[in-house]
Amino acid sequence: MEGKRGVADLQQEKELAQVPMSRSSIVQGIKELVDGGLHAVPPLYVRPPDERPESSSLLSNVQPLPQYQIPIVDLTALDSTGAARVQVMQEIGRACEDWGFFQVVNHGVELAVIQQLQEAAFKFFDQPAQERMRFYTQSIGEPIMYRTSFNPAMENVREWRDSLGFNRIPGVCDGFQDAPELCKKEVQQYMKGVDAIAGKVFKAIFESLGVEKYLENEVQAGTIPRVRMSINYYPPCPEPSLTLGVSAHSDVGTLTVLHPDVVPGLEIKHEGTWIPVIPTDPSALVINVADQIEIWTNGKYKSIEHRVVTNTNKPRMSIACFYGPSDDTVVAPLPTLVDESHPPCYKPTKFEDYLKNFFSNKLLANRGTLDLARL
Ligand SMILES: O=C(O)CCC(=O)C(=O)O
Ligand SMILES: [Fe+2]
């Protein structure tokens, strides 16, 4: 099964030797393996049969049936006042309740801004390993993170992706300020646009339930405290039926804004079936409810399981921005959403503890994160 060791492998080993870091802590990225010439999926990346994508998942040219397409919300009127705004807010609420995922168009981030970031990020991944490895870490709390898979120290099976990430945690760090020069301007520009979208969508989500007053600090547009950007790079895979780019999981924070790429790969579990998310156009963004919103809304708005499949032809690059509350926020079902017929489904959990449990718990290798808070 193991692919042939190519020139690129040897070159990378030489380069890694120059990185000032203990070699035992470095995990080789999937891009290096693929660039070195790989004709089969190495055993470390082969999923157990029950986790492998179904063959239907891999036919990326098949359009999902209309009833299996996530809602598309036009955000134009979200900046206005009156009935048109209320309508968009209600559409967002319905999408969160029925799907947990929706696409947004006319969101205010120009296609050029997205493409400039994609181009800059491809340049980052195309650099010699030595350059990329300057940012290597497997932690997910560093200001800047070049990583592979999710958590190789704990996983039995690795994910078919490398990633470049940035954390902004107010009062702690701002990785965007110190981003590598070749993509600094582009990540900052993109982040500014996505922050604006996240702020207003977050507010609309809570307004749609009439509960915004409980979250004054969280819903003020522009004051969403924490974000992690992850630029995920999925190289082509010789045997997509055996592996996954990202294994099934829900996102841990409040909400996620994703640029999914025009190369398909993202799938969500809707009513028990894995369905592909096909972007309507190259500038469409995908927004999903993450675990903390499911907890606040006592399960009314769902943090849906999703995963990424690979393909044989093209590299795929998605850009995910994960928003989250501050560390000391205690997240619990909101009082107006709990009554005798809707008892609380989740216990109050401090976000810091939720995150720590998530990243340190071996049993959560399959990332059933909401179980951490479930009553
Ligand atoms: O690449 C994608 O489309 C999704 C990635 C994802 O779900 C994640 O990084 O949490
Ligand atoms: Fe995700």
Could you list some keywords that capture this structure?
375 residues; alpha+beta; Jelly Rolls; nine-stranded mixed sheet; four-stranded antiparallel sheet; 9 helices; disordered N terminus; binds 2-oxoglutaric acid; binds fe (ii) ion
Explain the overall architecture.
InterPro entries: DIOX_N (IPR026992), IPNS-like_FE2OG_OXY (IPR044861), IPNS-like_sf (IPR027443), Oxoglu/Fe-dep_dioxygenase_dom (IPR005123), Plant_2OG-oxidoreductases (IPR050295). GO terms for molecular function: metal ion binding; oxidoreductase activity. This is Fe2OG dioxygenase domain-containing protein. Strands 1, 2, 3, 4, 5, 6, 8, 11 and 13 form a 9-stranded mixed β-sheet that branches. With 375 residues, the chain is an alpha+beta fold. It has one domain (45-372): B-lactam Antibiotic, Isopenicillin N Synthase, Chain (Jelly Rolls, Sandwich), CATH 2.60.120. The protein has helices at residues 7-17, 30-35, 83-98, 111-126, 129-133, 184-207, 216-219, 291-296, 351-360, and strands spanning 72-74, 101-105, 144-148, 162-169, 173-174, 226-234, 246-249, 255-259, 266-270, 273-276, 285-289, 306-308, 316-324, 330-331, 349-350. Mean pLDDT is 87; it is low at 1-24. The relative contact order is 0.15. Helix content is 26%, strand content 19%. The chain binds 2-oxoglutaric acid (AKG) and fe (ii) ion (FE2). Fe (ii) ion binds at residues 249, 251, 306.
Hetero groups in this structure are: 2-oxoglutaric acid, fe (ii) ion
CATH class: Mainly Beta
Can you summarize the main beta sheet? 9 strands, mixed
Shape descriptor reads globular
Annotation, overall tally of beta strands: 15
> Gap between N and C termini, in Å?
44 Å
Q: Radius of gyration, rounded?
A: 20 Å
Keywords: Iron, Metal-binding, Oxidoreductase
InterPro entries: DIOX_N, IPNS-like_FE2OG_OXY, IPNS-like_sf, Oxoglu/Fe-dep_dioxygenase_dom, Plant_2OG-oxidoreductases
Family: Belongs to the iron/ascorbate-dependent oxidoreductase family.
Protein name: Fe2OG dioxygenase domain-containing protein
